[in-house]
Structure to design on (298 residues):
């Protein structure tokens, strides 16, 4: 057996490979560090971009909320003795619920015309909001602890359902098969349209996070819920799932100076959801309107 030659291929090759392995390892480590640095830089840039967009969006306090104003398209007759609590258009007919003890009613007929059917509530009931669900109408009462289910054609009472708390506004979202109700606070409650049992609720908030209180009459259009703010000529459009205000609507100046009427209350979406009927408590008029964008600074 021949003895190995010092410095031959075995040990020398290993010595030559060792520096190469080290170089490759160092290169791989450097590449990993560079990649990590690039990822970190990209994350920082993304965060800064989001922050910039947020700061830009909130610079005027809008928080992404669209500012709209009611533009009158047509003026219609309205009963000046109707203390309007709920208003809803369905199938070419207009449903209206009115309040006050001993004077509460529910009526249906052509918009701007005397109602074809009017039903009085018991004297001890104070009528509130109403909505149409298929062939039925739900009408709330204020503090009587009941809601009344009616036939949508005749307004005949079908049954009364226990309704704890105060009833204010109500509307129906067919896409989710749920009712949305208000009670004068900043909360909207989701309810089963067959039993009125509560299934959830959301708090309505301004862009800055503060609550929008005194939510009153409601109108559902797609994912949005339009709500009168009681005592003000203001309507807010709210995302029904999150409670976030998506539009702030100025409905002031509808009545002429000197015309008598109570507060704005009554929103009814017309087919297509682009036009609405607006009125108020004891208003002599009802208005067909569109909600137009307000120009910056307007």
């Amino acid at each position: 057996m021949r003895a190995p030659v010092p410095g031959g291929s075995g040990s020398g090759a290993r010595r030559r490979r060792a520096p190469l392995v080290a170089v490759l390892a160092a290169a791989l480590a450097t590449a990993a560090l560079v990649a990590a640095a690039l990822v970190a830089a990209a994350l920082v840039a993304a965060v800064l971009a989001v922050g910039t967009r947020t700061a830009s969006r909130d610079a005027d306090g809008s928080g992404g909320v669209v500012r709209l104003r009611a533009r009158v398209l047509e003026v219609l007759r309205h009963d000046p003795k109707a203390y309007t609590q709920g208003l809803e258009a369905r199938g070419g007919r207009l449903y209206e619920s009115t309040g006050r003890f001993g004077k509460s009613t529910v009526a249906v007929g052509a918009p701007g015309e005397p109602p074809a059917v009017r039903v009085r509530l018991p004297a001890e009931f104070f009528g509130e909001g109403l909505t149409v669900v298929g062939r039925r109408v739900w009408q709330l009462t204020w503090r009587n602890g009941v809601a009344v289910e009616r036939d949508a054609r005749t307004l005949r009472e079908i049954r009364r359902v226990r309704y704890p708390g105060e009833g204010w506004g109500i509307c129906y979202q067919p896409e989710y098969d749920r009712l949305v109700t208000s009670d004068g606070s900043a909360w909207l409650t989701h309810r089963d349209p067959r039993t009125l049992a509560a299934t959830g609720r959301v708090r309505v908030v301004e862009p800055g996070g503060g609550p929008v209180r005194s939510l009153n009459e409601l109108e559902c259009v797609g994912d949005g819920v339009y709500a009168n703010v009681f005592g003000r000529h203001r309507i807010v459009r709210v995302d029904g799932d999150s409670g976030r205000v998506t539009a702030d609507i100025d409905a002031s100046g509808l009545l002429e100076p000197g015309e008598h009427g109570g507060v704005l209350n009554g929103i009814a979406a017309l087919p297509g959801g682009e036009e609405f009927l607006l009125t108020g408590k004891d208003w002599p008029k009802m208005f067909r309107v569109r909600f137009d964008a307000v120009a910056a600074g307007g």
Observations:
- Residues 100 and 206 are 31 Å apart (CA to CA).
- The two ends are 103 Å apart (CA to CA).
- Helices lie at 9-58.
- Residues 9-58 form the longest helix (50 residues).
